[in-house]
Design brief:
Elements (H helix, E strand, L loop, with lengths): L1 H22 L4 E8 L4 E18 L2 H10 L4 E14 L7 E9 L5 E3 L3 E4 L7 E6 L13 E5 L14
Antiparallel strand pairs: 1-2, 2-3, 2-4, 4-5, 4-6, 7-8
Length: about 160
């Protein structure tokens, strides 16, 4: 009797573990990104073969909504455990949010938390010198007045003037 009870208990545990693995979602880990002026490459791993899906947007709520509804701005790839997707074209010097989703063959999906990245700024700032006018100066000090214009914020404290 006791032996039969142990066998039944063992079979129950094995069946439970098999059942739980069928209903478990893939676990997303080792997320890494590389971004340029107009693209994002995002890579990640899953603990089982699963699809690859990247959803992105320029504001938090839209990225979160699309990540879990799969309706907008998605990039997908076939089943694997090592995922890598190139997203683009994107706008340069722009802050984006993104989320990942990987689904297994049973339709169970694992989601990443909402993350972010900024594409590179490729637009050079415009410098307009207002004074001094172009001529030879004999004084040791010359005041320089200029304006900078760019598509992103500029910190003039880091400007350098070369002779």
């Amino acid at each position: 009797m006791e032996r039969d009870a142990k066998i039944r208990a063992t079979l129950f545990v094995v069946a439970l573990l098999l059942t739980l693995s069928v209903y478990a979602a893939p676990q997303i880990s080792s997320i890494s990104t590389t971004s340029g002026a107009e693209f994002l490459t995002v890579s990640w791993s899953t603990n089982e073969t699963a699809s690859s899906n990247v959803s992105y947007a320029v504001n938090t709520s839209a990225a979160y909504d699309i990540a879990f509804s799969g309706t907008l701005s998605n990039y997908s790839a076939g089943p694997t455990v090592s995922h890598s997707i190139l997203v683009g074209p994107l706008h340069n010097a722009t802050f984006y949010y993104f989320a990942l989703q990987s689904c297994n063959a049973n339709g169970h999906c694992g989601n990443s938390s909402l993350r972010n990245f900024t594409t590179s700024d490729v637009d050079k700032p415009t410098v307009t010198i207002q004074s001094p006018i172009a001529k030879n100066y004999t004084t040791a000090t010359v005041s320089l007045n200029f304006t900078l214009a760019d598509n992103v914020a500029i910190n003039t404290a880091g400007c350098t003037v070369n002779k």
